[in-house]
């Protein structure tokens, strides 16, 4: 396994054009006034934007003469769909987006009977270098702007509202930061995105705090900052090993922030917000799925306001690793539960569309950067997964 360097500071590249979603309400009103229009037009633009309306012709509450100028200045198209793949009878849809500079990111919309969740990207690529993750293996291209992140959720909300997903028109209820990138390494933009996701109309999508999940590799200073924000979103921590020796190799940032520090920071978040955090653990055959490690993880988390979300590894091409077989998964679950730790296993949504973690973008980058294009994985055990429990589990709450 090649060891990639950790990259905490994103390369500086040309900024995407300014967008309404990058601005606070006050800034947007000032920008509209500067263009010679009454400030309240900013609220009208915001209402259209968050409803997914991009065609100026549909903005009938704006004077015809102002529509093109205002949308041109404040609602530039930032995300161009390159490809959409569907699975699960159309209820899982993965979109690959091209950004203004050609960078590629992806988001996945998953509709369940009781909710619709979009998994969004916060960076193009990722600098965290986790060896089992397709995105991590391709390195960090750049941070996304707020509007580039928010736009993925807005597109999902519009797809749901517009009845594009089988099951009739519906509402986007959940957002998870589990696409490409490390959200806490792009902190200011992610914080502003959270405000847009949680904000009421016309300046937001009006989602509830508990239905938004920020998943982090364990950047302790970022977890501490998030704790101070007073936004009780759900925190997910990608632990993947209960001991530093193994975690140093699976999650290289562990060489800087150790298991106990990460868990302490998550505990402080839970204490402050009253919200149970989620511990992500990719089950990798014979690497981190031993019964002793389940017990160690159980002892680490017993009595804490935490629950474990086990993810059978979705093997990436070229990786020597595989998902844990079902009996090992069951044993792991049983041992954690014996320690009183609530535990669920994620389902296999999107497995035939490279539904996990940067694989679609990695496949598309294949020709450009010399990595082999990805084959669709054909796992022998339940594999990828973005969320939701299989019957093994009980109560996934993202
Ligand atoms: N940077 C964030 C978001 C990453 S993706 C984080 O580290 O949490 C969301 C989850 O998918 C993380 O827990 C990540 O470790 C996990 N993941 C990445 N690649 C995977 C793979 N090949 N199989 C299973 N889970 C994977």
Automatic annotation (TrEMBL):
GO biological process, one term: tRNA methylation
Gene3D superfamilies: 1.10.150.530, Aldolase class I
Subcellular location: Cytoplasm
InterPro entries registered for this protein in UniProt: Aldolase_TIM, Methyltransferase_A, RlmN_N, RNA_MTrfase_RlmN, rRNA_lsu_MTrfase_RlmN/Cfr, rSAM, rSAM_sf
Protein's UniProt keywords contain Magnesium: no
Main localization category: cytoplasm
UniProt superkingdom: Bacteria
PROSITE patterns linked: RADICAL_SAM
Cofactor: record remark: Binds 1 [4Fe-4S] cluster. The cluster is coordinated with 3 cysteines and an exchangeable S-adenosyl-L-methionine.
CDD domains reported for this sequence: Radical_SAM
Keywords recorded for this protein, A-Z: 4Fe-4S, Cytoplasm, Disulfide bond, Iron, Iron-sulfur, Metal-binding, Methyltransferase, rRNA processing, S-adenosyl-L-methionine, Transferase, tRNA processing
UniProt key word Transferase: yes
EC number: 2.1.1.192
Residue sites binding S-adenosyl-L-methionine per the record: 181-182, 215, 238-240, 314
Similarity comment text for this entry: Belongs to the radical SAM superfamily. RlmN family.
Miscellaneous information on this protein: Reaction proceeds by a ping-pong mechanism involving intermediate methylation of a conserved cysteine residue.
Record HAMAP family: RNA_methyltr_RlmN
UniProt name for this protein: Probable dual-specificity RNA methyltransferase RlmN
């Amino acid at each position: 396994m090649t060891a990639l360097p950790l990259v905490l500071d994103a390369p500086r590249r040309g900024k995407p054009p300014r967008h309404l979603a990058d601005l606070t309400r006050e800034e947007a009103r000032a920008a509209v006034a500067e263009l010679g229009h009454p400030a309240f037009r900013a609220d009208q633009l915001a209402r259209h934007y968050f409803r997914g309306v991009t065609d100026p012709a549909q903005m009938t509450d704006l004077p015809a003469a102002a529509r093109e100028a205002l949308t041109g200045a404040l609602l530039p198209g930032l995300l161009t769909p390159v490809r959409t793949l569907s699975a699960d009878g159309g209820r899982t849809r993965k979109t690959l987006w091209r950004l203004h500079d050609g960078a590629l990111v992806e988001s996945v919309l998953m509709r369940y009977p009781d909710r619709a969740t979009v998994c969004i990207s916060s960076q193009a690529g990722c600098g965290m270098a986790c060896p089992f993750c397709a995105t991590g293996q391709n390195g960090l291209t750049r941070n996304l702007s707020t509007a580039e992140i928010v736009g993925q959720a807005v597109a999902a909300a519009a797809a749901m509202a517009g009845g594009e997903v089988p099951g009739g028109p519906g509402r986007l209820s959940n957002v998870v930061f589990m696409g490409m990138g490390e959200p806490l390494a792009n902190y200011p933009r992610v914080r502003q995105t959270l405000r847009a996701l949680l904000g009421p109309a016309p300046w937001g999508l009006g989602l509830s705090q508990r239905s938004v999940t920020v998943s982090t590799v364990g950047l302790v200073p970022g977890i501490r900052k998030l704790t101070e924000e007073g936004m009780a979103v759900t925190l997910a921590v990608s632990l993947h090993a209960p001991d530093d020796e193994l975690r140093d190799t699976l999650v290289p940032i562990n060489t800087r922030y150790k298991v106990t520090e990460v868990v302490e920071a998550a505990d402080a978040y839970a204490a402050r917000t009253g919200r149970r955090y989620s511990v992500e653990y990719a089950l990798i055959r014979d690497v981190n799925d031993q019964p002793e490690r389940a017990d160690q993880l159980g002892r680490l988390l017993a009595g804490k306001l935490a629950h474990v979300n086990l993810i059978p590894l979705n093997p990436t091409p070229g990786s020597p690793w595989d998902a844990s077989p079902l009996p090992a998964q069951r044993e792991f679950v049983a041992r954690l539960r014996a320690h009183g730790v609530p535990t669920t296993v994620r389902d296999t949504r999107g497995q035939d569309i490279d539904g996990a973690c940067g694989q679609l973008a990695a496949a598309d980058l294949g020709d450009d950067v010399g990595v082999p294009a990805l084959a669709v994985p054909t796992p022998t055990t339940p594999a990828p997964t973005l969320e939701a429990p299989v019957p093994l589990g009980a109560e996934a709450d993202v």
